[in-house]
């Protein structure tokens, strides 16, 4: 990112923290947590600790970080080196990212750039550039409304298992839009806080159905009222559409009882297990296992800005009605405009309006509301135009 | 609840068994008297069984008091040897005995009380609570009937994560409302290590005091009989053709100049150090890696080797840890049943024995190598034993 664009981005972040810094609330047991932040020139500063949220807010205004992070772990010495911190416990965190869902809409908005010949095209990254046959290809992911809806649906699947199987009450569950392409779910004060990374891996495997033994489910002793995976599978089998030539239903039978018998007795073991694993794959939650199992991570703080988009990591208490492309816009001010030079960008939808796509040959100059310009700059597809010096708004 | 002498003879590790002995007002010095010859003999027998069979027998002597009293005497004897590996072995052998009795226990209240008071796990009965169809499979015997107990997920996971069979994975358990359904056998299996740890701790907490002459004699006898300790950092002789797939994957990525994730690098360094490679050999593998900085890599490898930083010599990560960090590239045959990349290939020991025609596996060689050390340790222990004396608890 060029200097002028970075400065505009930084100024926008500073304004956000100046106006809305009070929205960042103090994490519980703040003195036992590790904090860190990244700068706009790519540095990462970790192993910080704060006495109270005031000290952190002061840092935000002074340093204007690109990203602000806080550990889900509590430590005896949060500012010490990692192996001397003295881990106490950590909230469980789940990360759902639209990209992991591999939705078909990716083809409509992800794009790639060949670093060798400069060719740009919408769609998934090819193995080699069709133009120059080079393999140094950079890929840019984009999250559209469909992607975010997909991530939201995945979050609902997660919430169902957390509540019904793990017995976590709704009050303990905090849901956040990540500020980019998905959702973070934090469990506050859950009985699972003391799990080590192996225990967390088991939780993650439970949610993703990794390592599930399909032979355990080749049984007619299965009811939609059963708890856990069995009941979930039974409900899925019951609710599958009737089999006709067009449907993707792999089972021939049309009643729940007959379908279960088909799986248990009629189909061969390998056929039946293949179908069962397919069903588990649909039912499983596509969380990022690394995020859940790592107990030494620091996570973007709620109500701070995501430097990949300029959007807020936003808390939501009503996921169904939450619209991230509206509610996570940091400063929804449309009274001013910023002139940017866009290299290549799919459509952007923010605050109820859509902008672009900007996919003409060569770069285009566009005058856009600040939050749209910031989004494109943060995504690395636009820069301040022209000339960069005149657009510097920050005094820093 | 009150445990009877029958119960205490089975579950001799319970504090109530100690109360029973204290009530008799016996001193350590009393054990040299002929009245206690049977107690001392059974104590010796317990230890001999542990050393030779790996398990203390489950036959309860006709006289329950002898069984109850012989346990703390055996603790004093094992403690007096000062051999840490013997303490561990003995704790495991006593735990196996307890496991046998718990598995055959007909009185559910005893099970519940032991679990609640000494393991800290509250067992919740499942029968009659809501609709639960029988949990069994047509093709396996994993759950033949509705599991009778439920325990909190946390209590389950604390104990089950170390178990390798896939049936123990949480995803293969019936989980509802924060609880995991378990059978009596499941729970006993789950707490096996804890009982061992409890007995080991009892051994550690046993104070040293002067032993009467007859016990002193047995203590020396046990020291001679004790197996040598396991060497934890023996150099393994493994050629590159027998490196496990995870190590080969890390090497392949390095060779291609691609990034090796943190855990892959950690595995590579710990594994290669264990198979006898030097820090220089290992650092020399990295130059093609993106962002390679020789001095940083060298520091990291030296740190892992225990030469820098906290001076901890790091162990090779287990297969489970590698799976957790998505760096397991399992070979379905050669990785079967192994829990550490060091055990790869699964049939290495057998094939080595055949190749060499010696009938002696690597571990046995390692033991042979460590024999003089263990003899020295025994001599030191005997000297310590003379200096320190054992206290009756």
Mean pLDDT of chain A, as a whole number?
Answer: 90
Query: What is the CA-based Rg of chain A, rounded?
Result: 24 Å
Largest beta sheet of chain A: what is the strand line-up? 2-1-3-12
Q: Give the number of helices of chain B.
A: 16
How much is the radius of gyration of chain B in Å? 25 Å
Tell me the strand percentage band of chain A. 15-25%
**Biggest sheet of chain B, open or closed, and with what strands and sense?**
4 strands, antiparallel
Ranges of chain B where pLDDT stays below 50 over 5 or more residues in a row are 128-144, 349-374, 381-393
- Distance from N terminus to C terminus of chain A (CA atoms, Å) equals 17 Å
Compressed to H and E, one letter per element, the order of chain B equals HHHHHHEEHEEHHHHHHHHH
Overall number of strands of chain A: 18
Beta-strand fraction estimate of chain B? under 5%
Give an overview in words:
The complex is a heterodimer of chains A (396) and B (393). Chain A is an alpha+beta fold and 396 residues long. Chain A has helices at residues 3-20, 53-63, 106-109, 145-164, 197-208, 228-239, 256-266, 269-283, 289-293, 324-327, 370-378, and strands at 35-38, 44-48, 67-71, 73-75, 87-90, 92-97, 111-114, 120-122, 137-140, 173-177, 182-187, 298-300, 314-316, 338-342, 348-350, 353-355, 364-368, 382-384. A four-stranded antiparallel beta sheet of chain A has the order 2-1-3-12, with no helix packed on it. A four-stranded antiparallel beta sheet of chain A has the order 6-11-10-13. In chain A, strands 8-7-9 form a three-stranded antiparallel beta sheet. In chain A, α1 packs across α11 (370-378), α6 packs across α7 (256-266) and α6 (228-239) crosses α8 (269-283). Chain A is globular and about 75 Å long. Chain B is mainly alpha-helical and 393 residues long. Chain B has three domains: 5-104 and 195-225, no CATH class; 119-191, no CATH class; 240-356, no CATH class. In chain B, β3 (175-176) and β4 form a beta hairpin. The longest helix of chain B has 26 residues, at 362-387.
């Amino acid at each position: 990112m060029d200097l002028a664009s970075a400065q505009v981005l930084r100024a926008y972040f500073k304004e956000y923290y100046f106006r809305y810094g009070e929205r960042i609330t103090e994490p519980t047991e703040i003195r036992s947590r590790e904090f860190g932040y990244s700068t706009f020139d790519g540095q990462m500063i970790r192993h910080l600790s704060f006495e109270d949220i005031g000290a952190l807010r002061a840092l935000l205004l002074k340093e204007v970080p690109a990203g602000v992070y806080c550990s889900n772990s509590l430590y005896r010495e949060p500012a010490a080196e990692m192996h001397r911190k003295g881990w106490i416990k950590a909230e469980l965190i789940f990360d759902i990212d639209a990209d992991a869902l591999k939705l078909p809409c990716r083809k409509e908005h992800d794009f790639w750039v060949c670093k060798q010949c400069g060719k740009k095209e919408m769609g998934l990254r090819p193995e080699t550039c069709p133009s120059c046959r080079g393999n140094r290809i950079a890929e840019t992911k984009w999250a559209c409304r469909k992607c975010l809806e997909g991530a939201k649906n995945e979050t609902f699947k997660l919430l169902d298992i957390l509540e019904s199987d793990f017995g976590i009450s709704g009050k303990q569950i905090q849901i956040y839009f990540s500020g980019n392409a998905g959702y973070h779910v934090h469990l506050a004060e859950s009985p699972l806080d003391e799990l080590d990374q192996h225990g967390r891996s088991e939780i993650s495997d439970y949610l993703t159905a990794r390592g599930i033994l399909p032979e355990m489910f080749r049984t007619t002793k299965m009811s939609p009222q059963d708890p856990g995976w069995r009941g979930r599978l039974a409900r899925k089998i019951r609710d599958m559409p009737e089999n006709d030539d067009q449907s993707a239903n792999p089972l021939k039978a049309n009643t729940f009882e007959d379908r279960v018998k088909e799986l248990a007795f009629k189909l061969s073991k390998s056929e039946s297990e293949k179908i069962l694993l397919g069903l588990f794959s649909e039912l499983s939650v596509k969380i990022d296992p690394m995020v859940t199992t790592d107990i030494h991570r620091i996570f973007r703080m709620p109500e701070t800005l995501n430097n990949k988009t300029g959007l807020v990591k936003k808390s939501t208490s009503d996921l169904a009605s939450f619209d991230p492309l509206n509610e996570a816009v940091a400063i929804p001010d449309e009274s001013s405009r910023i002139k940017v030079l866009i290299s290549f960008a799919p459509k952007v939808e923010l605050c109820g309006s859509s902008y672009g796509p900007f996919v003409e040959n060569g770069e285009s100059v566009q005058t856009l509301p600040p939050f749209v310009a910031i989004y494109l700059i943060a995504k690395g597809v636009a820069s301040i135009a022209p000339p960069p010096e005149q657009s510097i708004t920050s005094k820093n | 609840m009150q445990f009877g002498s029958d119960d205490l003879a089975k579950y001799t590790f319970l504090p109530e068994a100690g109360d029973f002995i204290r009530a008799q007002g016996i001193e350590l010095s009393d054990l040299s008297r002929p009245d206690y010859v049977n107690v001392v003999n059974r104590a010796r027998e317990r230890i001999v069984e542990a050393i030779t069979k790996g398990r203390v027998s489950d036959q309860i002597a006709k006289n329950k008091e002898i069984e109850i009293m012989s346990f703390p005497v055996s603790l004093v004897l094992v403690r007096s040897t000062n051999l840490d590996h013997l303490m561990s072995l003995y704790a495991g052998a006593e735990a196996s005995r307890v496991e046998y009795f718990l598995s055959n226990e007909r009185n559910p209240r005893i099970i519940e009380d032991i679990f609640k008071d000494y393991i800290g796990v509250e067992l919740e009965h499942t029968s009659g609570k809501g609709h639960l169809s029988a949990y069994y499979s047509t093709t396996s015997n994993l759950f033949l009937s509705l599991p009778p107990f439920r325990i909190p997920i946390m209590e389950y996971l604390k104990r089950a994560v170390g178990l390798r069979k896939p049936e123990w994975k949480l995803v293969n358990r019936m989980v509802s409302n924060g609880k995991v359904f378990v059978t009596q056998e499941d729970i006993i299996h789950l707490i096996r290590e804890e009982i061992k740890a409890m007995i080991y701790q009892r051994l550690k907490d046993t104070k040293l005091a002067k032993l009467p002459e007859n016990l002193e004699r047995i203590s020396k006898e046990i020291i001679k009989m004790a197996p040598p300790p396991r060497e934890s950092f023996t150099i393994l002789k493994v050629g590159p053709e027998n490196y496990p797939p995870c190590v080969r994957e890390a090497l392949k990525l390095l060779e291609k100049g691609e990034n090796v994730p943190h855990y892959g690098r950690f595995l590579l360094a710990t594994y290669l150090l264990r198979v006898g490679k030097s820090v220089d050999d290992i650092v020399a593998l990295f130059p093609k890696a993106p962002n390679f900085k020789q001095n940083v890599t060298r520091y990291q490898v030296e740190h892992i080797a225990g030469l820098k930083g906290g001076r901890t010599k790091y162990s090779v990560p287990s297969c489970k840890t590698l799976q957790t960090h998505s760096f397991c590239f399992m070979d379905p045959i050669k990785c079967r049943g192994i829990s550490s990349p060091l055990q790869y290939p699964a049939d290495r020991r057998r094939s080595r024995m055949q190749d060499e025609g010696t009938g002696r596996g690597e571990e046995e060689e390692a033991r042979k190598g460590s024999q003089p050390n263990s003899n020295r340790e025994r001599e030191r222990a005997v000297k310590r034993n003379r200096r320190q004396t054992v206290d009756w608890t």
